[in-house]
Design goal:
14 strands; 3 helices
Length: about 220
């Protein structure tokens, strides 16, 4: 399903303007427009395990990232220009239920990369106690930090900052954060959600982002 969802990477921008269409046998459930020129479409597929959901992120040129999560908001698989990554060994799975029950959740797992390598991810999410309402959706703010290392323990990526989470929607949403590729050079980003659209609402299954975007010159 994931490669079918991203096959439209080869389509021109004008084709994307018509809107997002999920793969055959799948149903879109939510569209989120975010800062920094990104639109995300969430969909479920009848042949996938119960509780799982795909998210496809698109910019002005079309889809560039797709990921599969479960009902606990736990990452299971993703695909982008660098290839596919799938969940490997899990010492401590991520869990939205634990986060809301205890106010914090830690995770520890391995990623299996398409190229045959593995990386180790450890991190935590902590509720800050602050709630925000964005386009009618009440989201809880989190403080997060995670580190990704190769099999020798060399740090490949470290990220920290704030995100938003909804137990009802079963999803985390980006917020202001910093990302370090291991070189010590941190990149500040803020992909916070700006609007939510559900079936029958304006903006549902949008194929083009609308916030913080530059004009497209054809």
């Amino acid at each position: 399903m994931i490669r079918a969802a991203l096959i439209c990477l080869a389509l021109p921008v004008s084709a994307q303007a018509a809107g997002f269409t999920p793969p055959q046998g799948c149903t879109t459930k939510m569209t989120v427009q975010s800062k920094q020129c990104r639109v995300s479409n969430y969909y479920t597929c009848g042949n996938d395990p119960a509780g799982t959901s795909w998210r496809v992120d698109s910019d002005q040129e079309g889809p560039f990232f797709a990921t599969l999560t479960n009902a606990e908001g736990e990452w299971l698989e993703s695909l982008d220009a660098n290839g596919r990554r799938i969940m490997g060994e899990r010492a401590d799975p991520a869990s939205i239920s634990t986060l809301f029950a205890e106010g914090r959740d830690e995770y520890d797992f391995w990623l299996n990369h398409e190229q045959g390598t593995r990386t180790h991810v450890t991190g935590r999410d902590v509720l800050t106690g602050r709630a925000v309402t964005i386009d009618g959706q009440v989201l809880q703010q989190t403080k997060f930090a995670f580190t990704e290392m190769d099999e020798t323990g060399r740090v490949l990526r470290h990220s920290h900052g704030n995100e938003f989470v909804s137990q009802d929607l079963g999803s985390f949403f980006a917020g202001p954060s910093e990302h370090d590729d291991g070189s010590g050079n941190a990149l500040a980003v803020d992909g916070s959600p700006m609007s939510f659209a559900f079936p029958g609402e304006d903006g549902f299954e949008a194929g083009q982002p609308i916030f913080d975007c530059d004009a497209v010159i054809s």
